Amino acid sequence: MIRKLIITIMAIMFVAAPLAVALADQGPDGNKRKGKYTYRKVYKACAESGEVESASPTISPADKKMAEWKDIFENRKFDEFGCVKHWESLADKDILDIYTYFYKHAADSASPAQCQ
What pTM did the predictor assign? Predict the structure, then answer.
């Protein structure tokens, strides 16, 4: 009886521990698809106002690791994107969506992405 209980508890631990680790840091919880769209829209607006050279984004999520994107977005360091006034005018929800897109497709993520 005790042996079955110990085996059951160990089996639960082996299943629950990796699951808990996987769920521990999911990153931001915005809409990454909307974030990709919003990012491209902001970049296009920047190009139309002449603040960046190309309407195509030059910075892709795979350019940095998750921790680097976390630092940039949580501390609102948008200088490297250019046209800071456009970034500062974005709603917090839009920033969260863009952050989610960059975080979920960072260089060290499960699915790194390149903007095209």
Answer: 0.75
CB-based burial label for 34 (10 Å; 0-12, 13-18, 19+): middle
Within 8 A by CB and 6+ apart from 4, the residues are none
Evaluate whether 50 touches 82 at the Cβ level (below 8 Å): no
Q: pLDDT of 20-56, one tens digit each?
A: 545 455 778 899 999 999 999 998 998 898 888 887 8
Closest CA to 74 of 30, 11, 13, 9: 30
Four-residue CA torsion sign, 95, 100, 101, 107 = positive
**Backbone φ, ψ for residue 67 (5° rounding):** -65, -35
In this structure, how many other beta carbons lie within 10 angstroms of the beta carbon of residue 113? Answer: 17
Q: Kindly provide the b/e burial profile for residues 50-61, where b requires at least 16 CB atoms within 10 angstroms of the residue's own CB.
A: eebeeeebeebb
DSSP codes joined into one string, 66-116:
HHHHHHHHHTT--GGGS-HHHHHTS-HHHHHHHHHHHHHTSTTSSS-----
